[in-house]
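Bumping my old thread because nobody answered last time. Still need a sequence for this structure:
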């Protein structure tokens, strides 16, 4: 990966961390606002009212802004830049930590010792509560705790009393414990994310192998049948046409005889690239097996289906495989197109008619396109989704 480019795996992990942190944010913000109100109520008769109310209003305003940020994250359809959201989260965490640190500095300097001890207890509870909310994102917790506890520790030290010095040490030890707990939580969550991502990657790989041909990287027959049923059903419901193209390579045996199976495999890979070049993102190109291919065209009018078939036929005929020993190997194709008009799609008849049209193109001299209309089956019953291929 080029330097400076984002790591998708890292971004995915950060997105999951953000989801967990923002999921806990409403409860955390409610707890922060409640702790602030309790502290103000306790110190209301000991601290100037203007100082208390200014600090409390600032805290409530900040909690409201952070709640709006949380809601914006939840409403986001997709998180394309998780690092930007991490940055916003850290800014909010730093502002909260600074505000609590300022409150601790002011309140610890006012009132008698019992009130100071209770204030330290409340501040410790805020630090511990923040750890449970930020545990999945170590960076966020550090950003919150650093300004918060730095100001509180300085305030305790500057009291210059025999009681405040050990209180500062105890508070520092508590901070170290919650930091270590947050670090361990972050690492544990990271390990879970790594295992989850690896399992998801393995699942996608297994699913891809089960639905794609390993030689040509096109979907296989089973996956084509499944998609054909979906397209046919959707075409009937949506009342739009669809088409199925069968492609049987000509002279493929000669390629194998002259260049060996390696040449035959390369020819199949090159033909698959030709098919990919002539289809839309909504279309499906498949290898049915051997030298047989198919293209499924949902929502496709007859004129376009026939044009796609003729373009593919021309491209395959123009293709020349330059092989070892100075060999110039060529293949051709016989193509059958089954077309279903509006609300007439039927998976079974599309398979049958496409196969019959391809067979007719082969019998008519090869190197041509035969188009036939697929009429829906009238009798009830389950559709047979495996095409009956006849040997040529």
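Sorry it took so long. Here it is:
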């Amino acid at each position: 990966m080029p330097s400076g480019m984002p790591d998708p795996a890292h971004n995915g992990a950060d997105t999951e961390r953000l989801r967990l942190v923002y999921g806990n944010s409403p409860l955390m913000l409610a707890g922060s606002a409640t702790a602030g109100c309790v502290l103000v109520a306790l110190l209301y008769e000991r601290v100037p009212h203007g100082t208390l109310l200014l600090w409390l209003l600032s805290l409530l305003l900040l909690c409201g802004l952070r709640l709006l940020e949380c809601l914006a994250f939840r409403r986001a359809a997709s998180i394309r830049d998780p690092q930007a959201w991490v940055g916003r989260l850290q800014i909010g965490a730093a502002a909260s930590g600074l505000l609590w640190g300022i409150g601790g500095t002011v309140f610890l300097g006012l009132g008698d010792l019992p009130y100071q001890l209770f204030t330290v207890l409340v501040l410790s509870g805020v630090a511990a509560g923040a750890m449970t909310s930020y545990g999945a994102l170590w960076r966020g917790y550090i950003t919150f705790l650093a300004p918060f506890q730095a100001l509180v520790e300085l305030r305790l030290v500057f009291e210059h009393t025999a009681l405040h010095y050990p209180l500062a040490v105890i508070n520092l030890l508590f901070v170290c414990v919650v930091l270590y707990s947050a670090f361990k939580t972050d690492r544990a969550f990271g390990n879970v994310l790594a295992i989850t991502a690896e399992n998801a990657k393995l699942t996608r790989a297994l699913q891809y192998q089960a639905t794609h041909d390993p030689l040509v990287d096109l979907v296989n027959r089973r996956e084509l049948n499944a998609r054909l049923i979906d397209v046919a059903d959707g075409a009937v419901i949506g009342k739009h046409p669809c088409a199925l193209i069968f492609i049987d390579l000509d002279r493929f045996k000669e390629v194998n005889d002259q260049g060996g199976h390696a040449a035959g495999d390369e020819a199949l890979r090159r033909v698959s690239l030709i098919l990919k070049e002539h289809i839309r993102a909504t279309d499906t190109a498949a290898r049915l097996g051997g030298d047989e291919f198919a293209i499924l065209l949902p929502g496709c009018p007859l004129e376009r289906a026939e044009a796609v078939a003729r373009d593919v036929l021309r491209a395959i005929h123009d293709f020349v495989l330059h092989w070892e020993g100075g060999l110039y190997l060529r293949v051709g194709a016989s193509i059958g197109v089954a077309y279903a008009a509006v609300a007439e799609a039927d998976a079974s008849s599309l398979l049958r008619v496409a196969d019959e049209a391809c067979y007719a193109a082969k019998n008519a001299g090869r190197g041509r396109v035969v188009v036939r209309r697929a009429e829906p089956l009238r009798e009830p019953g389950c559709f047979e989704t495996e095409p009956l291929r006849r040997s040529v």
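The chain has two domains: 8-204, 221-373. Let me know if any region looks off to you.
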